[in-house]
Amino acid sequence: MNINDSVLKNEEKAIFGMRSLYRKYGYSQYKMSKFEEYDLYVRNKDFLVSDNIISFTDTNGRLMALKPDVTLSIIKNGRDAGDVVQKVYYDENVYRVSKGSHAFREIMQVGLECIGAIDDYCITEVLMLAAESLRAVSRECVLDVSHLGIVSAVIDGMGADEGLRAQLLKCIGEKNTHGIRALCAENSIPAENAETLIGLVSAYGSADTVLPALGTLCTDEESRKCLDQLSDIVAALNAAGVGDTLRIDFSVTSDMNYYNGIVFRGFVNGIPTGILSGGQYDKLMQKMGRKSGAIGFAVYLDMLENLGDDGEAYDVDTVILYTANDDMTALRGTVRMLTDAGQSVMAQKSVPEKLRYKQLLKMNGKGVEILETNA
Amino acid sequence: MLNVALPKGRIGEKVYSMFEAAGLECPSIRENNRKLIFENPEVGVRYFWVKPSDVAIYVERGAADIGVAGKDILLEYEPDIYELYDLDIGKCRMAVAAKEDFRDNPRKTLRVATKFTNIAKTYYTSLGRDIDIIHLNGSIEIAPILGLSDVIVDIVETGTTLKENHLAVVETIVPISARLIANKTSFKFKNEAIEYIVKKLAGQESTSGDKENNA
Question: Model-level pTM?
Answer without folding.
Answer: 0.86
